[in-house]
Design goal:
The protein has helices at 15-27, 55-61, 72-77, 79-84, 100-113, 127-136, 157-160, 177-183, 189-197, 247-261, and strands at residues 8-11, 33-37, 50-52, 65-68, 88-91, 117-119, 138-147, 170-176, 204-210, 217-225, 228-236, 238-239, 242-246. It is α/β, with parallel strands linked by helices and 266 residues long. The strands form three sheets. The chain has a six-stranded parallel sheet with strand order 3-2-1-4-5-6, with helices on both faces. The structure holds 1,4-dihydronicotinamide adenine dinucleotide and oxaloacetate ion.
Length: 266
């Protein structure tokens, strides 16, 4: 990796990528989004951003790093060829990594290309604690995610509850992180981050809640193990363009980018 070249590309140009683009431009850090890879049917007209509809053309353009802010499908389809071409990638659609075959394919692609895949922390925190605690043995990791009903639109929650008429806090899912990642690909990426850092997808217990009184997206993790106990609670503000996505997730991608270009990772 040449740290002096800062050709940053994003996959997707939705709420998170646009928040990232805006924040980077305002930061004066010299790191900006210069290209985006979007689906064929999407038009993006944004000053200073080259638009690609094909991963081969993006590779040809020669990004120094690519940030995935798109979907599980994008991780599956676009990330392996980038890694194979020697391009470092930061991913935020982490739920895709519950697919063990994909995880292995990504590792193989990175090995072949001599590149590196970084998993952003996203909308959650405390992953460093889980990673350390795991070494001595974790006994239990429990995640509880609460969002307003509007954030659960277009998800399986709609089949079990009438989101529009909810008057009280309602559990919409109980299971493990593997099931949550698969069933809620736009809302439960945090469960995958917790699972990967901690005791894995099968053993990470997950409860998802729709709460008409919630003003933002709340994430709680309780963990216990040989190290002791750990509890974290975040009250995240959503991005204005997507109530499903916390602003913190976009900020986590931005800090992962800064770390990518730092000689000393702070
Ligand atoms: N790790 C975490 O904590 C979090 C992860 N996420 C994930 O981040 C991703 C982006 O979130 P938002 O920007 O809020 O979503 P969004 O729906 O506002 O934007 C996603 C954009 O990506 C594009 N896209 C989808 N598949 C694509 C593909 N294969 N190639 C290129 N573009 C593609 C869509 O057209 C859309 O414009 C989502 O997958 C979301 O689930 C969101 C919040 C937290
Ligand atoms: O942004 C959030 O609060 C969490 C989220 O959507 C996800 O984990 O996919």
């Amino acid at each position: 990796m040449n740290n002096d070249v800062k050709k940053v590309a994003v996959i997707g140009f939705g709420a998170m990528a646009q928040s990232l683009d805006h924040s980077l431009r305002a930061s004066g850090s010299g790191i900006e989004v210069s290209a985006t890879l979007v689906p064929h049917d999407l038009t993006v007209d944004h000053d200073g951003v080259e638009v690609f509809h094909d991963v081969a053309a993006l590779i040809e353009w020669g990004p120094s790093v690519v940030v995935e802010c798109a979907s599980h499908q994008a991780v599956k389809n676009s990330v392996p060829p980038l890694l194979r071409a020697g391009i470092d990638v930061i991913v935020v659609s982490i739920g895709s990594l519950s697919d063990t075959a994909l995880l292995h394919a990504l590792e193989k692609a990175a090995e072949e290309g001599g590149s590196r895949l970084t998993v952003a922390s996203g909308a959650i925190g405390g992953l460093d604690v889980l990673r350390s605690a795991k070494i001595a043995g974790l006994e239990s990791v429990i995640y509880t995610g609460t969002k307003p009903p509007s954030a659960w639109k277009g998800t399986p929650a709609e089949q079990s509850v009438d989101l529009a008429s909810l008057r009280q806090r309602t559990v919409i899912f109980e299971g493990n992180a593997a099931e949550a990642s698969l069933q809620y690909p736009k809302n439960a990426n945090v469960t995958a981050a917790v699972a990967l850092a901690g005791i894995g997808f099968a053993d990470t217990r997950v409860t998802l809640v729709a709460d008409p009184h919630a003003s933002g997206n709340t994430h709680k993790v309780n963990a216990a193990g040989a190290f002791g106990r750990f509890e974290i609670s975040l009250e995240n503000k959503p991005l204005p363009d997507n109530p499903k996505t916390s602003w913190l997730a976009a900020l986590s991608v931005e800090q992962a980018l800064h770390r990518h270009f730092q000689r000393i990772e702070l």
